[in-house]
Amino acid sequence: MVRTAGRKLSTSSHVFLRRGQACRSLEPPYSGPHKVIARADKTFDIEVQGKVITVSIDRIKPAFTVREEASSPIAPIAPPAPIAPAPVVAPPAPFAPSAPPAPQPTPSSQPRTTRSGRRVHFPDYYHCRP
Fold first, then answer.
1. pLDDT surpassing 90 at residue 25
2. What CA–CA distance (Å, rounded) separates 118 from 6?
3. Per-residue pLDDT, 64
């Protein structure tokens, strides 16, 4: 099987190198980014910790970095205008109910039934006792 480097890998200036060991939890599987020194068909020469090593293209993937462009000076933001306090509004008159509240329905002595017609029976320990 012939494996070729991807289009992005052949033009990238930096790559990530896959480690050759099993990773522990929260340990990254790749190290880098590492600078590419030279390219061949199946291998790359990269700089790792100050040394140039040759690695297979199967162990690397391209590193995409954000270029920091020369930033233009940022204009200072004008301080916000002072906010005038909100006018004080008198509280509304308390609500007086026009009719007494409706009485709560009392539990009926009829046994409850489900939609399928079965009688609902709760154990005694679920009933409220005064």
1. no
2. 69
3. 84
Q: Which two tokens stand for residue 118?
A: 């079965």
Are 37 and 17 within 8 A, CB to CB? no
Work out the percent of the chain whose per-residue pLDDT is above 70: 72
Q: Specify the amino acid at residue 11.
A: T
Q: Which amino acid is at 122?
A: F
Sign of the Cα torsion 21, 26, 29, 35 reads: negative
Q: Nearest-CA neighbor of 53 among 6, 17, 106, 86? A: 17
Q: d(Cα 99, Cα 88) in Å, to the nearest integer?
A: 32
Q: Which CATH number covers residue 20?
A: 2.30.30.140
- Strands (E) located in the chain: 14-18, 30-39, 43-48, 51-56, 60-62
Residue 42 covered by a domain? yes
Contact 21, 15 (CB under 8 A): no
